Amino acid sequence: MQAPIKKVVILGGGTAGWMSAAMIKKLIGSAVEIELVESEQIGTVGVGEATIPPIKLFNNVLGIDEAEFLRETKATIKLAIKFENWKTKGHSYYHTFGAAGRSLAFCQFHHLLKRANQLDDDQNLWQYDLNYLCAEAGKFSNINSKDPLYEIPHAYHFDAGLYAKFLRKFSEKIGVKRTEGIVEHVQQCNETGYIQALQLKDGTHISGDLFIDCSGFKGILIQEKLATGYEDWSHWLQCDRAISVPSERFEKTLPYTRSIAHSAGWQWQIPLQHRNGNGLVYSSHYYTDEHAQGLLLSNLQSKALAEPKIFRFTTGRRRKQWHKNVIAIGLSSGFLEPLESTSIHLIQSAIIRLVHLFPHHGINDTLVNEYNQQSTREFEQIRDFLILHYHVNKRDDSLFWHDMRNMDIPDRLAGKIEIFSESGRLFREQNDLFLDSSWLQVMLGQGIVPKDYHPIANSVPEKALQEMLIKVKTAKNAPIESLPSHDEFLQAIIQASNKVST
Ligand SMILES: Cc1cc2nc3c(=O)[nH]c(=O)nc-3n(C[C@H](O)[C@H](O)[C@H](O)COP(=O)(O)OP(=O)(O)OC[C@H]3O[C@@H](n4cnc5c(N)ncnc54)[C@H](O)[C@@H]3O)c2cc1C
Predict the structure, then answer these.
(1) Model pLDDT for residues 21-76, shown as the tens digit of each residue
(2) Catalytic one of 25, 78, 139, 416
(3) Ligand 1 atom closest to Cα of 182?
(4) Which of 97, 204, 275, 441 has the fewest other C-beta atoms within 10 Å?
């Protein structure tokens, strides 16, 4: 048991640091003082552009206006990820944020589609998905509809550096104290091992009761000081390098991320308002850095705007993300490659978890253990979803894809794949970030066609089933014609927001 928490110190002012500062101050700031230390000289990781829909909730809770956010972070809309060449070269599928069709009580839509002989690993499922139809047509509107058939769930592509700046302004306005400086020493209690203070290069002393380590990959507090250890998952997720490079924007802004598989890795293409973000994630066992850089640059579809930047990482997680009075959030807590754009989400959920379990009256083992168990499960569930993309493939053109197909995978994931292959059934574990519709799209897209459907689908008479499928498909296609293009939407919302701010 420790004394009540009166002061929180955040080390690091990247996306993780400023998201933590903004949300903790907003939600429990009347009870705690918050100080954030960052160093402009050290800088931030400087990548991270694609997100998933829960980010909207995060911004809403902060009270951020969507139009202002889009303008300030140069954001665009993300409806899906298009996976190209993942199953086989030349094949593509979408993992959208929507859900295809309309499920009946106790019977998911894809069982009905299978019964109607329309479920295969090609495009049928997606013809019933409004997100897919909008993504393909390059259209979007954020007008909410009361009918779930017409919902277009979305996330954003944005410049994470600009998002951090935006949140810095927000946080300072609501009372977060920012201190510029390089942390040189960390003072620790000899008895308890708790961190007591950070000492900056200029001699400044910053003491606190609870420390949030947002110092990036090195984990200055959680690892360099507390030596918490790291669980290495690189035997499953073998990519260990990334090269990123921005390039000129295209005339038309795609409302989705492209993920293009190569012979030993994959390339991202992320459209922002002012540029494209590009990168190649690869395994150093199969590509040299020189080869990877050449491959990325030769596959850019517009002029590069900067020198490529290389990142080295080990996929995995910190063994304890909360240890003593330190909580690691962001890159210091672990790393999963950006295949499903989950890192910024992991920051968001770590912050919310911390707020729920905040140790106002002092740190105790129950809170710490609960926090660590929840974060372990979350990392593992995302890990398994990522492994699925690599493991289930039908590519016969490279050793990498052959090795991915033949590697051992976690038992839980193997069970999920087996059950879906046999009967089309999907089991979402408690709190799994990815819903059944996500697992369905990736399993089908990667080439698993279930042998059977659930017999509940037989409860719908044949004629009624055919009529229902036509009705749903017509309804999903109906709004496309009248929706504005993604670029028209962005222009209109940003113009309106400029008028408000002048
Ligand atoms: C190649 C790549 C692609 C990615 N793509 C995506 C994506 O598409 N979507 C997504 O969600 N995520 C993505 N991510 C992850 C995302 O970039 C990070 O999760 C996010 O930016 C958070 O970083 P951070 O704040 O933890 O660390 P950083 O940005 O590294 O910030 C660390 C902070 O600590 C400070 N600091 C460090 N040492 C000291 C010191 N001694 N004294 C004072 N201050 C110090 C630094 O100045 C900085 O402010 C990607 C990551 C990589 C590597």
Answers:
(1) 999 999 999 989 999 999 999 999 988 799 999 999 999 999 999 999 999 999 99
(2) 78
(3) 42
(4) 204
